[in-house]
């Protein structure tokens, strides 16, 4: 930072700086002054968590979850002179339970960090250093209501518009029904999908795509309107055979929830949310008919129904094997979150 001093942020007893909601972030700022005395007017420590989105030049939003700003060295008059040596300033903050996990998205992020600012006389700008920490969420589906409930959706489309690029001989009705046995899943599980398609047109359905879609939802509040942007990416897919014109077919397939999938995050942030849905798409030669089923992805899969009935009490905020002395088991999760 400077030849005369060095400023460093260190997290205590947590090598990878990974925390769960409800845990306490502890650490210290270490100021090392080298050979010459140092004059300073102040030293402050900021701990902050926030979500932000920026999906166009004029559309931005930020939601602050917490911000603690504390002066640890303060001089209201003349600057304070510190001699050579090491000076330690501790900080701590207990994380709220209702905060989302750290994530970087296409147009936004959820981030947490500690920042130290030193005010030195005659410097044009304050000197700042910051160090991020990662927040993970642990959501056991067995404690969440509605996760065992199946979902069913259906759609009927009359092929009667030139927008579909059909000839008049292709007019007719397509009915698609789709269902899943439950709506709660965890990474590594398969989602069983039952589809029934009645193709009463004179055009063949070439194939049926069943995919798992990852959604990033951004919201910006302007003075005149609330504007939303949604980005969907396919993360898993199965392709089933098509249906001849005039025929009905039942399809049983499954799609995988990838092991590295983030969990659903829709409750704690207003500006950046993560959701998932299973999409079933009937593909004609020059047109498609999609239908979707929302699902929820948590950290821990549902137990067999008999075992699940015995789950009681307050849901845990972090894994049972999580160690107070560091999130060693969470290192890979933290590194993958930071790199995405």
From TrEMBL:
What region holds the Arrestin C-terminal-like domain? 170-302
Q: Name one Pfam family in it.
A: Arrestin_C
* Keywords, in A-Z order: Sensory transduction
Q: Which domain of life is it from?
A: Eukaryota
Q: InterPro entries, per this entry? A: Arrestin-like_C, Arrestin-like_N, Arrestin_C-like, Arrestin_domain-protein, Ig_E-set
Q: Name one GO cellular component term.
A: cytoplasm
Query: Gene3D superfamilies given for it?
Result: 2.60.40.640
Residues annotated as region Disordered?
308-340
Q: Which family does it belong to?
A: Belongs to the arrestin family.
Per its record, how is this protein called by name?
A: Arrestin C-terminal-like domain-containing protein
| Species whose genome carries this gene | Chironomus riparius
Which lineage?
Eukaryota, Metazoa, Ecdysozoa, Arthropoda, Hexapoda
């Amino acid at each position: 930072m400077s030849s005369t001093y060095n400023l460093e942020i260190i997290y205590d007893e947590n090598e990878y700086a990974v925390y769960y909601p409800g845990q306490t972030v502890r650490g210290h700022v270490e100021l090392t002054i080298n050979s010459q005395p140092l004059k300073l007017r102040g030293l402050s420590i900021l701990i902050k968590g926030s979500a932000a989105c920026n999906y166009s030049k004029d559309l931005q939003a930020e939601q602050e979850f917490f911000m603690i700003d504390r002066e640890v060295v303060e001089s209201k008059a003349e600057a304070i002179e510190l001699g050579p040596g090491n000076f330690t300033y501790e900080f701590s903050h207990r994380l709220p339970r209702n905060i989302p996990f750290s994530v970087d998205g296409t147009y936004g992020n959820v981030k947490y960090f500690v920042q130290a600012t030193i005010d030195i006389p005659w410097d044009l700008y304050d000197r700042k250093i910051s160090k991020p920490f990662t927040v993970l969420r642990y959501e056991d589906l067995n404690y969440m209501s509605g996760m065992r409930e199946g979902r069913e959706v259906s759609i009927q489309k009359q092929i009667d518009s030139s927008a579909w690029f059909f000839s008049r001989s292709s007019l007719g009705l397509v009915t698609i029904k789709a269902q899943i046995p439950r709506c709660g899943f965890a990474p590594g599980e398969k989602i069983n999908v039952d589809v029934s398609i009645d193709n009463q047109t004179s055009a063949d359905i070439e194939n049926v795509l069943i995919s798992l879609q990852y959604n990033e939802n951004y919201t910006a509040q302007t003075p005149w309107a609330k504007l939303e942007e949604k980005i969907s990416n396919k993360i898993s897919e199965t392709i089933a055979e098509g249906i001849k014109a005039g025929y009905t077919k039942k399809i049983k397939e499954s799609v995988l929830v990838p092991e590295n999938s983030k969990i659903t995050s829709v409750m704690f942030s207003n500006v950046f949310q993560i959701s998932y849905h299973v999409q079933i798409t009937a593909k004609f030669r020059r047109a498609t008919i999609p239908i979707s089923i929302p699902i929820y992805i948590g950290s821990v899969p549902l137990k067999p129904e008999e075992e699940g009935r015995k789950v009681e009490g307050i849901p845990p905020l972090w894994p049972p094997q999580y160690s107070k002395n560091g999130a060693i088991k969470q290192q890979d999760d933290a590194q993958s979150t930071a790199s995405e």
